[in-house]
Design goal:
By secondary structure, the protein is of the alpha/beta class. It contains eleven helices and ten strands.
């Protein structure tokens, strides 16, 4: 396979200077963006686009595409790379699934991505709420495809099966990083648990398309990245996303490296050689970026 390109580090470690030019995006504010933002506020709905400070929010919302975040906006875990607030959730909203279903129908959405915070405080990790949300979208927008970006449910097969039984079109769980960095980056997460989730999904729903994502720049090596990609192919993950880690604040893990777009292209080619049906690889790529196109391609 091709050799990796030279490391590009515009500033001394940690990388606290200006970001490379290829990471610049236009500030959001177009008419569709403002319309969608207003409707989401009206319906009291959360999106990971906002909570995780996604750089693509302007582009995606202009296309009337959003990733709904259910089960509140406070996560029970404190991952070193994530901008979502953490703490002890006190939020419960049994009407949320119905509001999301109505929103998908009213907006005429053809593709919906649903994700959530980790809710380790709940016995089922929120799986029943997940299933109710999927079914609500099916009722109100029967032609809309549903991708679910799920937490690991602390490895509970029953919770995973509850979500699968509701009939999503794509099952996504982000691996996020390489095994060596899990203790630093994914507090409460387990690499083998992530792979086990995909194994169990394959066993109970072999036709369900599986997807995962990795963020780059936390200190992983190229060999570790490729090994992780191989692990994901071994559990029949079909769609892979690769994107640049961007530090949300000085309280989060530093960026160890900014990958050049050419490096992302090369890693994308490696992924396709490994057998992924679709690889979305680029500095600004996030798990839900161009999700509908990814599903179409796969």
């Amino acid at each position: 396979m091709a050799q990796s390109l030279p490391v590009i580090q515009p500033d001394s470690h940690p990388l606290l200077g200006r970001k490379p030019a290829w990471l610049k995006v236009r500030a959001p504010g177009g008419p569709n963006y403002m319309r969608l933002k207003g409707r989401l506020r009206e319906w009291n709905l959360h999106t990971v686009c906002e909570e995780a400070h996604c750089p693509n929010i302007g582009e995606c919302w202009e296309e009337a595409t959003a990733t709904f975040m259910i089960l509140g906006d406070v996560c029970t875990r404190n991952c070193g790379y994530c901008a979502v607030a953490h703490g002890k959730p006190i939020w419960e909203d049994r009407e949320e699934p119905e509001r999301i279903g109505r929103a998908a129908g009213d907006l005429g959405l053809e593709y919906v991505v649903i994700t959530s915070v980790n809710r380790d405080d709940l016995a089922d990790g929120g799986a029943a709420h997940w299933a109710a949300t999927i079914r609500a979208v099916r009722r109100h927008a029967p032609r809309c495809r549903v991708e679910v970006l799920i937490p690991d449910f602390q490895g509970s097969p029953a919770s995973l099966e509850t979500v699968i039984a509701a009939g999503p079109d794509i099952l996504n769980h982000n691996t996020e990083t390489v095994p060596r960095l899990y203790k630093v980056a994914r507090h409460g997460g387990r690499y083998e648990r992530a792979l086990g989730l995909f194994r169990h999904a394959r066993a109970v729903a072999p036709a369900l398309v599986r997807k995962s994502g990795i963020i780059l720049g936390l200190g992983e090596t190229r060999d570790e990245l490729v090994a992780t990609m191989r692990d994901l192919r071994e559990v029949d993950v079909a769609i892979l996303t690769l994107g640049q880690y961007l530090r949300p604040s000085t309280h989060h893990l530093p960026v160890e490296k900014y990958y050049h777009p050419d490096e992302f292209a090369e890693l994308g080619a490696v992924g396709r050689e490994l057998g992924f049906k679709h690889v979305e690889s680029g500095p600004l790529v996030r798990s839900s970026y161009h999700a509908k196109r990814q599903a179409d391609s796969a």
